Amino acid sequence: MAGNPYFNIAFTPKVMELQSKAGSRDAYARQGPRPGGNAALRAEEIAFIAERNGFYLASVSETGWPYVQFRGGPRGFVKPIGPTQLGWADFRGNQQFQTAGYVEHDERVSLFFMDYNGKRRLKIYGRLRFLDARCEPEWVEQMKMPEYRATIDRIALVEIAAWDRNCPQHISVPL
Description:
By secondary structure, this protein is α+β, with helices and mostly antiparallel strands.
């Protein structure tokens, strides 16, 4: 399917089969390329990410099981490095290393940025790699948040493969 790079990843043959049965396939097939090109974020998406203080990160283990975790920090801790790359300081957590271990096997991830009050979301497919903070002082300097006193164990870098925004249906505003 030419056109939307996000759909090229997300809409597998089985997904398209279900879309056809439901009658939504033609509408998605008609959508052409996104302004701004392939995987490049636009200023609007970069600003949306900068406003967030967390996001959901999904990866898959060697056994095929998906894992989703919430990554949090001060507002703006996820930083654009270029139009197709994001990075953040990976702060010390519970030391389970699930995501870090999983991406050593398969670097493909999905990031989900939410604005519950504004009923907006941004979905990103990408490839994640971690750098050891002890060996990367330049990256630590670029990614640190001086007002946030947390230990930086790693630097996370995501090369964006595709992104999409979608409808605000069923996004509940927090109570």
